[in-house]
């Protein structure tokens, strides 16, 4: 590498926001990997520690070319390295604590009692790494009676009120058909970790972060649906009628569906103009924001019955001309071919070493002066075990004790 190339490389490295930050990822399935992949995408060195059987999501996420690299796993574990440690072994637990002493961040989603038994509690690790940022992703906060219960996305959706909102809309409880709680709480964990990193820069102190799923999702839901019970005494019941009304959905047109929102007076009056009913702007039910809110059911009923006489494309042209917010309805099959999605290059075909060509989901956000790391494919189970242990100072005999344990007599 010549001097010019070296200077360019050094400048590129400086522009990667989390370059030099070391993360030990002791998480599996979705919530933890969401958080650690975000850190990895922006330059952190993320070491994913797995038990010999591997992250459950390698197979729980459906079929794959190799049989151990499901689609969901591929979308949550890029830019990481994989180390296998059997934590039932003393040598493996010792090696893990050796790694913990040298990293900046440890992210865990094991239950507190299991962490304490394995010697991986914050207190145990802080003793060997006082500057450590330790993020524990929990199902339930430690102070509550549910603290040691297992938690999965569907359990949290039901317990936090999400299924109740679905009940309000459709007449029976149901889950949002994606792991919404896991993804949301994973990104909240990233916020907390980055805040702790900034705090450490100012104070030199490490931090113990606890991010409980139930409390975070309960706060998320009730910010929308505490509604009139916010006031004491209450001015009414729960559920924001605008977002829980059964007609809050894509609106049928002459040949499909359209997504429409007309909230301000200007937008609503333009909508009335578009459907040939300009007199409705003087209707006492619809003449103001407050009036339309009081008459949400009537307003939504009007919208749902007004668009059947034209095609989606015709309505989109009209609404665009009149500045009424509207977009086409995309199915999952059509979404990758949406012209805007293609323009920004959200989906990219890449080559995976075991799965062959795959579609990677790119990063939606941009930095003017920074840059994410280049794509590195999600690793096969344990692909980096020896290299990582050696880099972190374990000698060959210690590595052999972990990777080639002697069979019991």
Q: Which residues form runs of ≥5 with pLDDT under 50?
A: none
- Measured by DSSP, the beta-strand proportion falls in 5-15%
Please give the alpha-carbon distance between the first and last residues.
53 Å
Estimate the global geometry from the Cα principal axes.
Answer: elongated
Q: List the strand order in the largest sheet.
A: 3-2-1-4-5-6
Tell me the major beta sheet: 6 strands, parallel
Summarize the structure.
The chain has helices at 3-14, 31-41, 57-60, 71-76, 90-100, 112-117, 122-126, 153-160, 162-170, 180-203, 213-225, 241-244, 265-274, 289-294, 296-305, 312-322, 339-344, 385-391, 396-403, and strands at residues 22-26, 45-50, 80-84, 105-108, 133-138, 207-212, 251-252, 257-260, 326-328, 347-352, 356-361. It has 409 residues and is of the alpha/beta class.
Question: In words, what does this structure look like?
Answer:
It is a single chain. The protein has 19 helices and eleven strands. The mean pLDDT is 94. The chain is an alpha/beta fold and 409 residues long. Helix content is 42%, strand content 13%.
